[in-house]
DNA sequence: GTCAATCATCTTGTATACAAAAAGAAACGC
DNA sequence: GCGTTTCTTTTTGTATACAAGATGATTGAC
């Protein structure tokens, strides 16, 4: 995909991102420049560059003259992000309903079929992969490159949380039927219908997750 | 507002931002690290930090081992950005219709009245300022902090372009009447109506601007 | 004369060195 | 004993030095 050798700072940013996503750090943890530098075997310079990349996506907060601290979103902020994701997806759907190509519609149906197969096998990983394909096709078919980029950005940030939410009982099956509604609306060229279907589809994910997290908190207290 | 001394890199990023916004650089121009460093009287290190800030907001593009290049959006990309802005504002409006407080509604009416006064005086600067207040109130009243942040981010980026578009004949007056529709919808708690009014209000700005730029290009060729 | 290869130069990326600010510890006064 | 103040230590921010890739010129082959 890219024959270009990435700069060291880039790969470090990616690795740190993975670490934070996978729960390697708690909310508020300070990222020690010197410790991480020797851990990665580089100097502080590329690390500081990596920190800025992370700050840009909101994964860490840089406080001047204090340091950088990981920022794991709480239940409320997560719900807010899912709400925005729902709006972006709705917008993609509205545009895509008017602009989507026949071949893209076929791709959508194909991804959906593979999703269905994954549900039958209860294969969470496969489902997750095809689900992502499904959504990215819609982003692209919005015909708005900026919208597509923004949607992908937020989609990526919500990735680790969406996954947990899928584990809820019956969620995969429900999600599938929502996908089918989306495809139908896009096929009919119903812009508002597609927008509504996508908004609800994504918003429900956020709400489920919100309940999940809120529930955990209550249980822990 | 902030008693905190900003780091040097921050202020440099801001200055560069201003420079790019105000047309100090053309699309594709390369930002020379050493030249700018001595121009600002600092070393390359804080400049490189500043570059990353700018890359994050999309003002410049960093190409590994090549350098950073300013990226002035063209007519198409600008239209795309306005379309996304329209969707974000519509979302703010939809939420705000259910959540807005009475005092915020008063603030909105007040800002609108000052807008009107500015139109009468044909005072572009005053109009622009109050218009911004108007929109930011709606972002805040969405009750979704993440949405508010994202809306403000894009709003800021579109700032220099929105301004030019206001110069079109009759645009300020039209914009005013659109504002009044928005206030009415929010007062009535009509979520979909507020969303539609705001989407149209912002989308038309993008379209006007698109025509404006496209027209310039055609005339120049 | 054109094209290719090599070499010189310039630019970016990284490492190290230094300065200044914040955090923490110890001494002092009450 | 508690709070305050000073001093030490740690940590961030910036400058400089060095390494490696990219650009452009020069040379040579055909």
Q: Biggest sheet of chain A, in brief?
A: 3 strands, antiparallel
Q: Please compute the radius of gyration of chain A using only Cα atoms.
A: 19 Å
Using the 3D structure, state the CATH architecture of the largest domain in chain A: Up-down Bundle
Biggest interface: A-B, 28 and 28 residues
- Head-to-tail CA distance between termini of chain A: 48 Å
Structural class of chain A: mainly alpha
Number of individual domains of chain A: 2
- Reading the helices and strands of chain A in chain order gives HEHHEEHHHHHH
β-strand percent of chain A reads under 5%
Can you count the helices of chain A? 9
Task: Characterise the protein shown here.
The structure is a homodimer of 221-residue chains. Chain A has 221 residues and is mainly alpha-helical. Chain A has nine helices and three strands. In chain A, helix 1 packs across helix 3. The longest helix of chain A has 30 residues. Chain A starts with 7 loop residues before the first helix and ends with a helix. Chains A and B meet through helix 3, helix 4 and helix 7 of A and helix 3, helix 4 and helix 7 of B. The structure holds a DNA duplex (30 and 30 nucleotides).
Keywords summarizing the entry:
homodimer, mainly alpha, Arc Repressor Mutant, subunit A, 5% strand, globular, DNA-binding
